[in-house]
Amino acid sequence: TGYEHIILERRGRVGLITLNRPKALNALNDALMHEVVDAATGLDRDPEIGAIVLTGSERAFAAGADIREMAPQTYQDMYAADWFAGWNALTRLRTPLIAAVAGHALGGGCELAMMCDFILAADTAVFGQPEIRLGVIPGIGGSQRLTRAIGKAKAMEMVLTGRTMDAAEAERCGLVARVVPATRLLDEALATAATIAGMSAPVAMLAKEAVNAAFETTLAEGVHVERRLFHSTFALADQKEGMAAFLEKRAPRFENR
Ligand code: HXC
């Protein structure tokens, strides 16, 4: 596939992107960012793919943005390149994207996991925004997404002190959907992705769009958006199939496209 820092695989209708810079604990350099975005947008356009899993290694999902690469940069460099803006491409994916996190998810690693639709964590996962210890602050959405995910008190403490939280605390405060034993993480993530990929693809995309509206709108507006999206599912053959299957007491066969 020509990628240097990631591994891209297809497992049936699930796309699997594995961050693969083991010597740097998957530190997110610019080249890796371009590869992840390229792979993810390619999978997003592929009608054979219904869900994507993004994972790292046992030791680290990602230990942050690449400190070696950032260290010499000036303000002008960062501003001119609009450093990290490229990651926003992931928020435009319509295909559901699951982060499967084991080990360190620090700084940009935590932020990347939070850009995914939800996080499945191994019991070894450690989350944190330690940027302040390097004399900087989060730059890939951490101050915003962590605050929305776990609330002001914990987010503020983590961002101001750089302290980390383990998987159990992350589940307790709603940062992750579920914690599983480390040895089961990838299987659980792939199985969850396969479940999603077995649904009607356009309906899964509409569902994702509806949930995401909760972060961008007032309640009344979000409920309105949801109702219109709900109405639009009645334009799909998959709505007829799903409801007919229920009434006929059989499994639905969605068109998946
Ligand atoms: C570049 C990194 C790195 C990083 C680890 N490495 N994290 N390289 N950028 N973010 C490299 C180390 O330099 C080392 O390379 C190798 O990976 C193994 O790391 P060790 O530190 O030897 O491993 P260990 O002792 O197990 O400690 C793991 C760790 C620690 C606790 C995760 O590596 C660590 O604290 N990393 C930095 C975490 C961090 O501050 N992340 C936030 C980054 S800033 P060598 O060549 O020595 O073997 C960020 C900001 C985004 O993400 C937006 C604002 C700028």
Automatic annotation (TrEMBL):
Q: Please describe what this protein does.
A: Could possibly oxidize fatty acids using specific components.
Tell me which EC number(s) this protein carries. 4.2.1.17
Q: Name one GO biological process term.
A: fatty acid beta-oxidation
Q: Would you identify the family this protein belongs to, as annotated?
A: Belongs to the enoyl-CoA hydratase/isomerase family.
Q: Please state what the protein is called.
A: Probable enoyl-CoA hydratase echA8
Gene3D superfamilies recorded for this chain? 2-enoyl-CoA Hydratase, Chain A, domain 1, Lyase 2-enoyl-coa Hydratase, Chain A, domain 2
Q: Which Pfam families does the record associate with it?
A: ECH_1
Give this protein's Gene Ontology molecular function annotations: enoyl-CoA hydratase activity
Record's NCBIfam families? PRK05862.1
Which PROSITE patterns does the record match to this protein?
ENOYL_COA_HYDRATASE
Does the keyword field hold Amino-acid biosynthesis? no
Q: Which UniProt keywords apply?
A: Fatty acid metabolism, Lipid metabolism, Lyase
Coiled-coil positions: none
Reactions catalysed according to its record: a 4-saturated-(3S)-3-hydroxyacyl-CoA = a (3E)-enoyl-CoA + H2O; a (3S)-3-hydroxyacyl-CoA = a (2E)-enoyl-CoA + H2O
Biological source species = Cryobacterium shii
